[in-house]
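Researcher: I'm preparing a figure for a lab meeting and need a structural model of a single chain. I don't have an experimental structure, so a prediction will have to do for now. The sequence is pasted below. Please return the structure as tokens so I can convert it later.
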Amino acid sequence: MRLLLISALILSANSTYANDILDRLKARYKAIEQGEVALPELNAPQQNISTTPSNNASMVNLNSSDVFIPSGEELIVTLYFDRYLLGDIFGVKTDSGAAFSLADIATVLDFPITTQNEAPQAQGWVRTPDNTFSLSILENQSSITLAGVTYPVSQEAIVDIDELFIDADTLEDWFDIIIDINYQELKANISSNAPLPLQERIARQSRSGSIQPNANVAQNPLAENDYSPLSLPLLDIQASTSFAQNRNQSTNLSVLGGNDLAYFNTQYYLAANSEIGLTGARLQASKTSPEAGLLGPLQATILELGDIRPTRVNNTLNSSNAVGLRVSNEKIGNINNTSIDLFGDIQPGWDIEIYRNNLLIASDTNIEDGRYNFDNLPLVFGANTVEIVFYGPQGQIEREVESYYVDGTGLGAGSFVYDVSLYEDGAELFDSFLDAQSNSQSYGTTLTGRGTFGLTDWLSINVGQQTHLDSEYRAFDRQSVGFTTSLFGQALLSSDYIVAPDSSSIEEHTLSTEVLGQSLDYSITKSKYQDELTQDWQTSKNDEINLSGEISALNLSYQQDIERQQSNNQTEYQYRNQIATSIQDIYLSHELEWGSLDDDKVGRWQLQKFIDGYFVRVGSSYVINPDFHVNGISTEVSGAPFENIQAQVSYSRNLDTQVNNIALSTSWRPGDFSLRSRLAYNDLLGWSANLSGQVSIGQIQQGYFTSNRSLVSQGSLSVFVYQDNNNNGVFDLQDQALPDIDVLSKQSFRRAKTDKNGIAVIESLPNYRQTDIEVDEGSVANPYLIPRGEGVSVIPRSSVVQHIEIPMVNSIEIEGKVSELLSNEAPRPVAFVPVQLLDKFNQVIDEVNTEFDGYYVFSRVPPGQHSIRVKPEYLVQRSYLPQTATQIDQRRAQDNLILGENLYIRKGDEVSGYSSEIRSFASLGALRSYWTILRKRQPQLLDYHYFYQQNGQTYTLYIGFSEERQPAENACEKFTTIGLACSVQAITRR
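Model: Understood. Here is the structure written out token by token.
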């Protein structure tokens, strides 16, 4: 299987798990404190269907349930106004809170404020033009001028890192707004007592139905980002060397890379150690299509080759290593009823914590194999905010936040989701090169499939089959069946049953609901298995109740978990409690765990606070047995003493073993790379030192670029901005590249500036999230330069730098007046007349209203054929004569201006008189048909003319017209004699 896949790749270019995490972390922390050289493995063992429930004591050293952000860390905050999603803005964590990009804040609030490098660094106005705004930043004194009044600005309120960041409290004072920041979810809500332009715009758009809450979606045409035969690779490189007392020096190197190859996206990983040699290697080729466009009628969304996460026969089981092929039509980011799987590639030495609604639910420390894998992470009924926090060895802290809502099966009636894999179970592609280090066990060639079918919108069923094609491994086959149903949208019930060939089985039933805004889950798990020694059949049963939620009034998050384990005629109860709160600027968390068969009750608390710009954390662990006994203390201080430099001092002591640990870490992150040093001392192990560095390297056609962020795990974009002098959309000899132009990713608020070659590289774009790419008009020196065409949007994908071009063309302004022609007077300017600009296809591309003096102007008109006209509906409603559009000759433009494009409107000549009104009709066609038939039947009407007047939705027929009343009376009498009902009316004709 591996040989075939290597050839194919060349040619085509982990309820029970949470307990296991706690046990493994306990063992590892205990080993560190006792100075053991060989530390227990943190990797989760593969789940075995016959494994009995663990009765081991729970861990002593619990993890914190809070997320805290050190000063100097860059933030990407999702901004809301009321319930409307505005987008993401850049920020930076400060000692007092956070500072945000002035340009981003001004953009989302619709304040016309521009920023620049020289003084004044920002100017414009706020809410109204007379409320002017000007910010000057000097070395010793900075000031802000609002509505002509100047105020001093504290230097601590200004953070200048490549662009201008202003402290959130200062922004509130300047703009009379309130910024409510949720650091746990990296969200902020803006409110204001005084009306904002933003509020007025939202009100207008809401009235027109053009905006919906949380609907900040890309609008521009999508630029294709197809898989290519070969793209330039992206590399994340990490190296470290370690020195330890009485031990050999050890050097490690790891490379995580990716690029397109043979129309697949390839991801590869290599790791080596100076003492062992090659310690890790992985290769995967994949295709992903959010639109389900893979493999024709199969409508697949995922196709994977190589080292894969194979299909699981049931979502309650954990995944294993495998080499093979996987095909699925699951939605990208899909949830499995009430759980999710989180996995991905990452450099060795990183730590990961997973938070759900502000509470820690899983973690993995010191990852060594270049990937992380969390299977079956539980979700609660209702809203779930899941945050993944990555801690890098160079002091990096990165976050990913996603929101999930659980209230149904996730499938509509008639929907079918499949997942199929053919693979070598338990193997890795390069096992033959890693035999000395690999502990993997192959279980032969395996075929696994799972299907889920939506019977109704509220009921779905699932079936699965795992078959080992090698007869010696048939004992590991599995079959599965289950269902999920939504109970009137108020609860979710799921049941799963898994059976093996020897009749061992697992069944699990889960009920999830919400009570008074708090999530409540109840689950039952029953296992039947054969004891390996006695061959006797055993049964076990686990019942678990989980209550979790938030109490907003107390700023408190909590989780209570009670579990009963019944096995081998023995019953054990487990109780777990997590609670986290904040009191002003002090954060406090506490965890407690107790087991009925364990004499110890174990817990841990932590207190965290910012003091004079430094982050301070103090905590301890304790045991109650039955007396209260503190068995460990720890403290940590971190901060940024200098620009781009982060330092951390930590100390811990095990009070039982009297073992002390102290460490000093410093990291330097200038932008293109990062370096970190660590010096530590342990009473048992002695001194140790570590030096490590990390850099990410990307390639574009014009050369290389580097970053201290990972380029492989997310998408990147190369944007070429140039002046298109001949308006052909192609860069040729007479065109010029445009430097120092800001390019924005509108939905994510990433930005970059073009270099001397007109190239801007935007990094860390979220995968498969469509975003508009636009030029920041405030950064363009020539006010007449505008983007050519409709704009562009992209859907980024990992380990690929997509390239797009934005040609800029010279625009013109068209000015003129609209006047009314009068019979005996000079033309009169008309205000509030709608004037339209049309393209060569006679499509309206812009519309303006004339000012009080009839003046109008169209700005930023692109090159091409255009015409102007008064809006036809305006002419009809006000009884003006119709007119044709006036063609614009752009060759007349001087200094990008076309003047004197005047438009004239007039009403026809009016004559007052009298006519015979006959009858009204619902349509003009009916009126004309009636008149035609009437003239044929009554030849005496041939001497008369007819006309009509429209009144709303009806048309009235008149016969004859005279300026005197008597002739009209005579005609009406004649019409009466032939059977027509008529009446003489005074009318005005044009």
